[in-house]
Design brief:
Helix content of chain A: 10-25%
Oligomer: heterodimer
Structural class of chain B: mainly alpha
Largest sheet of chain A: 10 strands, mixed
Order of helices and strands of chain B: HHHHHHHHHHHHHHH
Number of strands of chain B: 0
Strand content of chain A: over 45%
Largest interface: A-B, 17 and 11 residues
Distance between the termini of chain B: 33 Å
Number of strands of chain A: 10
Chain lengths: 164, 485
């Protein structure tokens, strides 16, 4: 039985973006803003999926290269953007290729709600929701857990970066 | 010589000398003889025969001595008259007779004999000039050169002034010289008429030929690059420079398109942020701002897409043009190579050097015709100079214009023959000469035996006439023109 969209989708809209061939989404309530990738300041001794930091609203926000974190090969031709995610005072950002898009809730369908599996920790990012937008499947990831797995909050506290 | 003798006779008459030569020796001889005979008669009357014989002998000897003495002591005017008689004789010797040697009149005799030689030389010169004039008059084409020769009366006037009192003789003969000058100018004008007509005909025939060759484009190219291969290279280089400039402009346009795309992306990002904020907060104000920003971003996106599309199309066309130019360059080089080897149909074209030469030739013909007209006007308007002054102009005319006319036509024959040979030699014999060159037969088909001055209007001579340098007699070289104030 198909449920009404607004009752199912617990968000006003989604910011969708591509990583590789897959399309991902983040709820607009957790997106603080969108920036151009040329504002990223690379860090010395950069290693892994961390692309650097970016200044946002008076603070310094770490940037996570989502393609590198998901181990997906990206084409270098597309323009890169930074999606700043925010929960309370904690912020971090995702580096994606291609212009993100805003999809209102009326245009999206919450097809599945996936509960995190405690046993699958460490195997990859947890998919917490599956949406369908214009007939195409869009995945909602637990970006915070992914960020915590790559860069623990204690490291940022010691370094003074971000509010984490 | 006759004048000189007559002058001396006149001077003798003025002094009252007898017209027939006297015989003073005979008169003295007769007087002394009569005196001796008188003395002998007186002695005979006295009866002294011896005295008679001695007196007669003394009378005879004295008469002889007196006669000899009287002959040696003749007056100078009498000697001069006797010398003139010798001088006016037909067989006058080159040296004075022995009886006049040692006398002052001997030098006069020598001077008179020298003048007589000069007169004979001048007479021979007159005859030579007259003969040359008659020969040149028999050749109509070379009438211009003949007209520049001094006429017979003019030459006679020259000889009148060639004597020892030339000033007086020239002044007396000046009206006749003026008339002869006018006659010579008239002859000059008449002789120049066929030349002028011929020059006009050549000019009219050369103009369309040169114009057609220029229209064909062979002469429109810069003369500095005369070689066809260089012309092709210059053309390709010019096109390449233009393409490079266009490519640089296109690159700049692409940079500006990139900037516009970045601006569009920023506008889109701004619209997305506004929409995001409006979605998060549910504010109508943010929603309207987000909507306007989105429209602005869409408009910028469309413009940027248009610019990018046009830039791409131009880039593609530039690439195609470059390829086409390269192909054309290769074809042109191949065509030039075929022209050089004489195997292509284009080898029948006229070289730019030939066109340039024809243009220069046409210019020379015009200049020559203008110079003839100017000189003719100057001859008609200016007052007739005296004989020595006109004689000073004559060598210039003789040396410049006939020589220039001759050189011009010889050069015309050579260049047209060379062009005709260059055009017809590598071509297929059946196709004939190229169409643009449709000049008169004497221009296109000129050869060494053609008559350069022949035309339909002017009387055509039967045989080719070559230019003959006017022969100036030796006796004219030392004569200086008389200066007029």
């Amino acid at each position: 039985m198909e449920q009404p969209l607004r009752s199912v989708l617990a968000t006003r809209g989604l910011i969708t973006f591509n990583v590789g061939d897959a399309r991902y989404a983040a709820p607009v309530e957790e997106v603080a803003g969108l920036l151009d990738a040329d504002r990223i300041s690379p860090l010395p001794g950069r290693n892994g999926p961390m692309a650097g930091v970016v200044a946002f609203r008076g603070g310094v926000v770490p940037v996570l290269d989502l393609a590198a974190a998901l181990d997906v090969q990206e084409s270098n031709g597309a323009a890169a953007y930074v999606i700043v995610l925010e929960r309370g005072t904690d912020r971090f950002s995702l580096l994606v290729r291609g212009m993100p898009r805003l999809v209102l809730s009326r245009d999206a369908q919450h097809r599945d709600q996936v509960a995190p599996d405690p046993d699958s920790e460490g195997d990859g990012p947890a998919v917490i929701a599956v949406y369908e937008i214009a007939g195409r499947e869009v995945l909602g990831l637990d970006y915070w857990s992914l960020m915590d797995s790559i860069a623990p909050p204690a490291a940022f506290r010691l370094s003074g970066i971000g509010g984490r | 010589m006759t004048d000189v003798g007559r002058d001396h006779h006149n001077s003798s008459n003025v002094h009252g000398a007898p017209s027939s030569p006297p015989s003073p020796t005979v008169a003295v001889f007769a007087v002394v003889l009569l005196a001796g005979l008188g003395a002998a008669g007186a002695a005979y009357g006295l009866g002294d025969l011896l005295g008679l014989g001695v007196g007669a002998g003394i009378a005879l000897a004295g008469a002889v001595v007196a006669a000899v003495a009287a002959g040696k002591s003749a007056p100078p005017d009498v000697k001069a008259i006797a010398l003139l008689d010798v001088l006016t004789a037909e067989d006058a010797p080159s040296t004075p007779p022995s009886r006049f040697r040692g006398e002052p009149w001997a030098s006069l005799y020598l001077m008179a004999i020298g003048d007589a030689e000069a007169q004979r030389t001048a007479t021979l010169a007159i005859q030579e000039v007259e003969r040359l004039r008659r020969e040149l008059e028999q050749k109509p084409v070379s009438a211009a050169a003949a007209a520049f020769e001094p006429g017979p009366s003019y030459a006679n006037d020259e000889l009148v002034g060639a004597g020892h009192d030339s000033e007086l003789s020239t002044a007396v003969a000046e009206p006749a010289v003026t008339n002869d000058r006018a006659a010579a100018l008239q002859a000059l004008a008449e002789a120049l008429d066929p030349i002028r007509e011929e020059l006009s005909t050549i000019e009219r025939e050369l103009e369309p030929v040169v114009a057609s060759l220029c229209v064909d484009g062979s002469a429109a190219l810069p003369v500095r690059d005369s070689t066809p291969a260089k012309m092709v290279d210059a053309l390709v280089q010019t096109a390449a420079d233009g393409i490079e400039d266009m490519a640089a402009g296109l690159m700049r346009a692409n940079e500006l398109a990139g900037v516009a795309e970045r601006v569009t992306n920023r506008a889109t990002l701004l619209a997305l942020n506004a929409a995001l904020e409006a979605t998060r907060s549910g504010s109508e104000a943010f929603a309207s701002i987000a909507e306007e920003t989105r429209r602005l971003a869409e408009y910028a996106r469309e413009a940027t897409d248009t610019i990018s599309r046009l830039s791409s199309e131009i880039e593609i066309k530039v690439g195609e043009t470059i390829s086409s130019i390269q192909t054309s360059s290769e074809d042109a080089k191949a065509a030039v190579a075929s022209i050089g080897s004489g195997t292509g149909s284009a080898s029948r074209g006229v070289a730019p050097e030939t066109v340039t030469a024809l243009q220069a030739l046409l210019l020379r013909v015009r200049t020559l015709r203008e110079r003839i007209a100017v000189r003719e006007e100057a001859s008609v308007v200016a007052p007739a100079p005296t004989a020595p002054e006109s004689r000073a102009d004559t060598p210039e005319i003789q040396e410049e214009e006939p020589a220039m006319i001759h050189a011009t036509f010889v050069e015309a024959e050579e260049r047209v023959a060379a062009a005709d040979t260059a055009v017809q030699a590598p071509a297929e014999p059946a196709e004939g000469p190229p169409q643009p060159v449709e000049g008169p037969p004497q221009l296109v088909e000129a050869d060494a035996s053609a008559e350069p001055l022949a035309s339909a209007e002017s009387p055509a001579p039967a045989e080719p006439v070559a230019y003959v340098e006017p022969k100036i007699p030796d006796w004219l070289e030392g004569i200086e023109p008389r200066q007029h104030g």
